[in-house]
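Retro notes - structure team

What went well: the batch runner handled both jobs without manual restarts.
What didn't: labels got mixed up in the shared folder, which is why I'm recording both outputs here explicitly, each with its sequence directly above its tokens.

Job 1
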Amino acid sequence: MKKIYILFILICFTITIKAQNRINIQIPFTAQAPNIDGTEESLWDNAPGDSINLAFTGEAPTVKAYWKALWNQNAMYVLISVEDDDHWPYWVSGGNWFEYDQPELYLDLNEDLLDGFGPGDNKGTGHYQIQPGFSDGGAGVPGFLVEAEDYRPGGQYCYWVDGENYVFEYALDYSTMKNKGGEPLSALYFDDLDSIGFDACVIDQDSGITTARQRAVWQNVGGADGLSQNYSNMDAAGTITFVQSLPSSVNSQNIAPLSVYPNPVSDYMVVNADFNKLIITNILGVEVRTIETTEKRINIEMLPSGVYIMQVYNKRNPVGMTKFYKK
């Protein structure tokens, strides 16, 4: 029994270290949505990202690739750029569509990112796979991601091919995704998560050279970590965090959190504080509404859908601040 207990402690310790060592990339807010056309426009210069340069265990891809991401109140945007030496999609090879050249994205939208699940074998658990492939004549033609089977989100995508190289762009619609509790999601949910499980994979095949898919991944290399591909288990994937710029005039560390409800809100919001003025700014810190009142029930139905910051004052003294989402 003692040996079993010690083994259990070692397993828990290993899982903790693995969680602590996961690479995290901060994803900034964008006021302007990118054009989903398969080209890397200048807006993407503001997006961080990373190389997709690790070989999945036992495979030998011959591509160079990277991903970038942005977000706003409507969607998460991802770009994958691939430099290939032999572009060989399934519709040219005649093989299975999921075994030939194409990129894949993976998301884990739960607070617990070490649950042993992936999107494919555990549908409806808040894990998602995005993998629209190439089609004959499809370059430059916008396509739609169809929500299906509890692990395919909705949204839009487009790709462009330049010789052997290609770029995929995606707009992933929050409202088409759910966590493992079945809760419909919003930008506020994504923004509130400390970390979102994320990984990117590029499937590579070369005509006359390879007979099985060769995968380059951002983080989860599979067997080397004692785990498996993201489709089955995302525990070894990387993570991303949505970040934003709060108003420069506000030092959020010196202002107490403000209690409001409901949140998200459609029309009226109740503010649990004593105040005589409140200021609402958008996510970029631009003031959109100032209200001088002592009433705790505030009408915000005129605001467009999105994420906002509310700052509350009492006789010019800051009382509190909160972030809320307008449906």
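Job 2
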Amino acid sequence: MAGGLAAQLPHSRFRVKLPAADRGNVRQVELSPGLEVSIPAAEGDDRCVNALLPCTPYPAKQRLRKPNDLSAGFLY
């Protein structure tokens, strides 16, 4: 091993199962034909929290760089 630290926990009681992360309160909107994105459901909320991608709090201000091609990203 080169400069790292490895730890082996001796017993399963030391393992902690974390609860699932909250997905947040989002809803789906269609930005362009065939492209749906998640947006925060609450008015004035600008947090996608842990929502499934793609998610944007500003659907009216953002647009796709290439029409109907999410892989190219957004413009703001």
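One thing worth noting from job 2: Residues 21-75 form one domain.
We'll revisit the folder naming next retro.
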